[in-house]
């Protein structure tokens, strides 16, 4: 058993999972402290997905939207350890949300649409456009417009 030194995750020999109670228990027992896969990706700024979101709600109900995103991150990372948000860049009604895996970006865009309606577009591979630097990159790009 290993524990992450950066977030409440533990490794059972097969996979990482987030669980604060278990994490505290294992730390008390002196489990080895390492950096989990998700925290390593965040440290290395590995981008798996990008959400370009645009809409007045992002400005008008900013705190509410942030809380929603963080709640979704908590729920989803409980199911899949790599469902984590790397960064939320806000420029008024235009946000760029980066995630460390593809699924989370898609999930965030879907949640935005579910909560505030609007339009969703999925672009498989942003770096594929123009053909430069596309090899080996597999991030997903999702766009959501409120109106
Ligand atoms: Zn971690």
Would you kindly provide a brief summary of this structure?
This protein is an alpha+beta fold. The chain contains 5 helices and 9 strands; from the N terminus they run E-E-E-H-E-H-E-H-H-E-E-H-E-E.
If you had to describe this structure to a student in words, what would you say it looks like?
- The chain is of the alpha+beta class.
- The protein has two domains: 2-42, no CATH class; 46-145.
- It is 37% helix and 29% strand.
- It is built from five helices and nine strands; from the N terminus they run βββαβαβααββαββ.
- The chain has helices at residues 20-28, 37-43, 56-60, 62-79, 102-116; strands at residues 2-4, 9-11, 16-18, 32-34, 49-54, 85-91, 94-99, 119-123, 140-145.
- The strands form two sheets. The protein has a five-stranded mixed beta sheet with strand order 6-7-5-9-8. A four-stranded mixed beta sheet has the order 3-2-1-4.
- Strand 6 and strand 7 (94-99) form a beta hairpin.
- Helix 4 crosses helix 5.
- The longest helix is centred in the middle third of the chain and has 18 residues, at 62-79.
- The N and C termini lie far apart (48 Å).
- The model is unreliable at 128-135 (pLDDT under 50).
- The structure holds zinc ion.
- The site of zinc ion has 7 residues, from helix 2.
């Amino acid at each position: 058993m290993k524990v992450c030194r950066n977030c409440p995750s533990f490794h059972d020999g097969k996979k990482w999972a987030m669980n604060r109670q278990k994490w505290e228990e294992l730390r008390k027992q002196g489990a080895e402290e390492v950096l989990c896969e998700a925290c390593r990706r965040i440290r290395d700024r590995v981008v798996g997905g990008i959400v370009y979101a645009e809409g007045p709600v992002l400005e008008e109900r900013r705190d509410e939207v942030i809380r929603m995103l963080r709640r979704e991150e908590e729920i989803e990372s409980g199911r899949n350890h790599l469902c984590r948000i790397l960064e939320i860049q806000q420029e008024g009604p235009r946000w760029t949300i980066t995630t460390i895996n593809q699924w989370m970006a898609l999930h965030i865009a879907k949640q935005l649409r579910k909560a505030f309606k609007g339009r969703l577009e999925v672009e498989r591979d942003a770096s594929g456009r123009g053909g430069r630097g596309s090899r080996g990159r597999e991030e997903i790009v999702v766009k959501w417009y409120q109106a």
